[in-house]
Specification:
homotetramer; alpha+beta; 5-stranded antiparallel beta sheet; globular
Chain lengths: 361, 361, 361, 361
């Protein structure tokens, strides 16, 4: 299902890659929030294909049209709906693969799930294109967070074996987040950028693809928001992040590394700084018991390499039940990670606004 | 919030560590499922404290009493409620720490979230003890899965730097899962067990604690179950797994490692084997586009070291707003991982039954 | 909130009367259902304004455009989104009343609820125009029901003091439902129609308005669907029916009249007829304990007179906090009941499909 | 399903009439609310069987035991669970009717819904006994409302043809509500009480039963709470009220009578009184567009006569598929209405607290 109810925001995503249009309905947003459409455009531009060889050459002009929920530049509080028309569809490119399962795609599982009735063109509702309305929703929520003093941002932590620096989990600032997320290729280190671009270009030239890790953070988020057990911040953030195609893992704070150290090393001691309770270290990633601690919220999401590669692959025709060789035509990103950066932020933004609505402080 | 609505099962956990009792209500279960109470007891015994030094010496006799939803040994289909009375409470042990935040615990965040009204004794509703009713729910769901030919199981993949072997993601069998999960110390390799026990005991002796990674799998789960976007299998499994205290990360299939390899390596080619569509490798962990592929479902969850250690720690009194040294009394597991194994399975079982109910095939 | 999650269908309505457009997203519909767009058009035409003096003269060309969820004439199973553009907006007509509360409208309550940020033009999201996408959703569900042998229909039971005949609660047939609901003025009795038209026209001439009662039924709905307590059929039908503006009451079976008779009269005896269990009478309206009995489902909904009347009314300016006389300009239905008939059916259709999905038999 | 999620409170009712116990879990309550257990006892005593011949002679000692969610007399904010043990079960009385459908009961529909696996003893989960935990929940919510200046109350408006006076929809006061709801037989008029008692006793003597109407009101509820469309106050109140067995209709404000008058009569004019916006009349029952207007919230619910009567009735054995005469043994209320009064209030209380949490003002 493409909707998500956290007790706070209700988000309903819709659309198929090659249908009439895609979009989103956001219900239960706070009313009266001033929304700057240019900021939305800027956010969505970060997800748009790059002209620099790191992504597909398709020109997706994903200009969302707001159908409801905005009046005189402010949210009305009633459902906010936005629609993006599909204009550049090229469905011919996909014509010959409709029943041969593209490896690592949802062609086969989607066919089973919907008894063969789903739209197979370009992945249909499984297309990464549905992250465009997700980013729209995230861009709206970013502004609602901004009104409350919260800034979020993300960067490319790694592309294959090339790593960027990590955010400083204690001292990361709103300014740093703003700066890095708005870079054309969002890394903290210029050297990392250069090497990552090389790795991506090499993969493209080699008709291959690569994956990577996105690191995301929020600063200024108030302490005391969230809930224990199933509606904790980690629960709702991970639920939203796994909605982004190609995500295969998520970790908060020091994440999987916490398993390698002693409790005495992992426990973040509390102290009072400038009259405020903080932790000296931030292995917990700003969340304890599902609830924000006031420290920066930090998490990382792993993205697999783009499944669509131009090399011949072995697969099956799931209608004929025959083994078949598959050559995927069309244009594809050799790496989804640069464009995934705003998507991860969007998921975080939606989760944080939802939690703030549910537990206003 | 301690409840979770997936459109399938509705689960509502309740209770505080030192209150009258803890429990769970499971709504929308299928009716007529034969439930063997001894199997439930055996499942819960796996979570019970061990007498072997790897966990606390508290004797938690967590015998759940079924209040409703069962009739003549079968689920009625109406809400199944089970209650565990708290008998061994020792609240005196916790008396002096109620306003000094235990590092890596939810004392401070819970205090803020509930405006100081939550039960501070033993962590209250944040206590890991709430995983007992979670295991009850998981034990019920295990039997419902069993009736449908699905077997789940988990093992300790690592404790600090010591690693067990991984499940074979393609060939793991129901028998292997049954065997490993029922071992007193669930590892695939006997050597790993021995070394892990040493690491845990050393941590205990040293008034310290260690964490680790649990690997969990399901075999026999039919292809075509789940949904794209926010209600995919990864989404609901992760939402439930993060309800287990101390989890800081989750990854499916090859997880974070997918970021290190080429698309040509990561893509799992489809083939036909014994008249059935399978993948040759299983980097995708049995889930594509949120939907099961018919391959084993595999994921790993990272657990931080037990926050409660007996060494003095620096912290703050969040009522007085003063820096304080804290010495945690009472008995605590030096490592939660062995007891977490059935909890992770439980989360998976609940997610899988919920998905099967929602999308019956 | 304008969305509704019953564990079955998730429906999200959006739009404002004078915004860019209105629409609906239907999530979790069954896949592969053949949908005839002409039937949808015919359903929606029943809600469109009549040229016969019983409703407003505005020409609302409510042609829904399907954006997603349909492929080659069938539901894909992924979210079905439909949008209706607002073309005939006449916002000038409403210019002078934005802060004087129209009696019996939601101007004042909506202003408070959304802190003055909601769209005041034409009622904004509170406009009865939002029943157009509701009817679209109901028209889709009508076809899904039809595929399962279920027929629904409604008629005008009363307009002010003029009453139509009631459906025979035991013997009402699919044919009768089809016939009456497709009449231009849906009554069972021609005499009632004539008198009702007179009452409506007299009200219009007199710058006044009238209300009435709609009776709705379903036949062919299988026994055993629904749930006890809060997700019973009565619960979800009433929740959806009260989403239609102007509804002030709902009753099932003999409804309020059940309070006037003895148990021995009210109890519907069971008997076996043609090898099937039926009830001899149908005071229960086809629902017992929230679950369908296999007898016709029958309910009635009361509609208040159109709040917008052209007579001067006393009211207040809720910004100035002054008493003011109000004269509502623009064109308004003297009676919403004829156009409400398909809306009530739509609510029933959505509820029944949702229940069938949740408890497939 | 026995749970209900309004975005505010999550309520999960469980239990069977003759099982081990019944109860309720309330999730997402505000924290720190002082709860007086004696007031809960007093509320529940109003639902308890009367010794005056108007109800069954069974002594149901429904003393709820709170298992979690309360600490030092206040709500913790974590799930509040309460359990009532079943002690007086007399399951022998029901032994012979398990497969003969009691007319107007859910025996047959429940059997179908749960494929014969549900607990048939005493109606199982369909038993009116499940209204005891509903009343517990309502009693907790009554106190939360009281802390916010809101008072609710209900009375018997009619028993068969005998009517009580109505609440004055404009001027009803908190004092009146408190007084009437705490009367042993809650009517406004002493004469009505006397005649109603006669009607009930006559029905009992005659081995018959009668129904009636409950009128319920809230005063002090702030204006501006609720939402348009499907989560309006009417929607959530009706959803909860139809969870009470035997309810067949609900109407708000002047309800079905609104269909009989002109718009000019039905529209409630706004005016300013003591510096506050009010309506001169209150046909709208305090709710416009799903949102509270600040006027008293008023609604009525119709209850059918007790289905269980001691007279022989014709029915079928739904296992044998044979026509059978049925004589229901055991003790039964000749009229559920007096005991239903607090149940209706409970439903309202839960709905109002839920709405206040969701849209805090």
């Amino acid at each position: 299902m493409s909707s998500c109810f956290n007790g706070g925001i209700n988000i309903s995503l819709f659309g198929e890659s090659h249908g009439r249009g895609i979009g989103v309905v956001l219900d239960n947003l706070p009313s009266g929030e001033v929304i700057d459409l240019e900021k939305i455009g800027a956010f969505m531009a970060r997800r748009a294909p790059k002209k620099d060889g790191t992504s597909t050459m398709r020109s997706e002009k994903d200009i969302p049209e707001i159908f409801s929920g905005m009046y005189e530049g402010r949210t009305t509080g009633t459902p906010l709906a936005a629609v993006i028309l599909n204009t550049d569809q090229h469905s011919g490119d996909y014509g010959n693969i409709s029943h041969i399962a593209r490896p690592a795609h949802a062609d086969y599982t989607g066919f089973l799930r919907y008894n063969g009735a789903n739209d197979p063109r370009g992945g249909g509702h499984f297309s990464a294109r549905i992250t465009a309305p997700l980013c729209f929703a995230g861009a709206v929520c970013a502004q609602i967070l901004e009104h409350r003093g919260v800034t979020t941002g993300a960067h490319i932590l790694s592309i294959k074996e090339i790593s960027d620096e990590r955010f400083d989990p204690v001292n990361v600032t709103a300014e740093q987040l703003e700066t890095v997320k708005n870079r054309p290729f969002p890394t903290l280190s210029g050297t990392a950028e250069e090497k990552m671009r090389e790795v991506i270009n090499a993969a493209r030239t080699d008709l291959n693809s690569v994956g990577g890790i996105v690191e995301c953070a929020a600063v200024g988020f108030p302490a005391g928001i969230g809930s224990p057990m199933m509606d904790g911040l980690e629960n709702i953030i991970s639920r939203l992040v796994f909605a982004i195609p190609a995500v295969k893992g998520i970790e908060f704070g020091n994440g999987f590394s916490c398993a390698d150290i002693f409790g005495s090393e992992n426990n973040d001691e509390f102290t009072i700084k400038d009259g405020k309770i903080v932790t000296v270290t931030n292995n917990h990633g700003g969340i304890l018991g599902g609830i924000s601690s006031g420290m920066p919220i930090i998490f990382r999401a792993a993205f697999k390499p783009t499944p669509s590669i131009s090399r011949p692959q072995n697969s099956v025709d799931f209608k004929d039940m025959t083994n078949r060789e598959l050559v995927i035509k069309g244009r594809h990103d050799p790496c989804v990670v640069p464009r995934a950066v705003p998507c991860v932020e969007a998921a975080l933004n939606i989760a944080l606004v939802s939690a703030m609505i549910e537990n206003p402080r």
